Structures are given as structure tokens and as C-alpha cells.
Amino acid sequence: PEYTSSLLNNNKNDLQCVDGSKQDQNIILLVLESWSPFQSKYWSGINDWTPKIDKLAQQNTSYHNFHSGGFTTNEGLMSMLSGIEFLAPVKRFFSLYMFETAWDIENNLPKNLEENGYSTNFMTSGNLKFSAKGRWLTNRGFD
């Protein structure tokens, strides 16, 4: 709670009106699995394999100081959507429950967006029954 409070109180700038600030904006969080910056000219300058993604990032909001929350997709989703650092219980990897430590967290990205009038949807080419991902995403607050 102290850390959250310090972040929320850190921006004490006076609000200013900006043309278009009251327009509805879509938010798309694009999560790529098995993707690395070396594939992008924008993020690393090494390869130019993702020019359309690079263009989207340049024209919108992108982050360059972003670190993995773990070594599997689920751990990354736990960090990004729940706002928690991935903390594995002290157990052997295959004895962990799916998304363990990240259920029933009220203050999370999808629920915060929904509270601000957004429709929240999760699209994937994967099977949502795998590792209880569908149930967990509903628990996060996705429509």
C-alpha cells in the first residue's frame, strides 16, 4: 500500500486542458509471446523483422525499460495484468497451481479499465482451457 500510494502521489502536476482529451480512446495492449527486441529495428536496431509492430510502437506508446515477470507466458501475464511481481511459492515447478499467487487481486488492469468505462477483451490463438487461463482471465475482470 505504501508503494502504491507513493506512485499515485508522485505526480503532483496541475492538470491542464488539452484539445481532444475528452475523446474516447481505445487501449490495445499487444503482448507477443516468444518475441525478443533483437527482432525489431525500433527496439534494438539489430533486425527489421517487425516493421508494422515497430510503426505502431513509434506512433503510440511503447516502453523500452520493460522486464520479464518470469520465464513463462503465464508469469508475464500475472505481472502485467495483476500489477504484481511474479513471486513463485517455494514448490517444485510442476507442483504449482496455475496462476498461483495471482487470483482474486482486486486492483488489476482489466478491472481498473472497466471501472473507467472500457470494455475489456482478451484475444489469443491459444486454448484458454490450458492452465486455467480462461478462468483466470475472467477472475482478472475481462468481459
Radius of gyration: 18 Å
Indicate the low-confidence ranges by residue numbers: none
Q: Report the end-to-end length measured between terminal Cα atoms.
A: 27 Å
Mean pLDDT: 82
The general outline is globular
Helix fraction bin: 25-40%
Characteristics of this structure?
5 helices, single chain, globular, mainly alpha, 143 residues
Describe the structure.
It is built from five helices and no strands. The protein has 143 residues and is mainly alpha-helical. It is globular, with a radius of gyration of 18 Å. The two termini are 27 Å apart.
Compile the SSE list and pairings.
Elements: H1 2-9, H2 51-59, H3 73-82, H4 109-115, H5 133-140
Put the structure in a nutshell.
By secondary structure, the protein is an all-alpha fold.
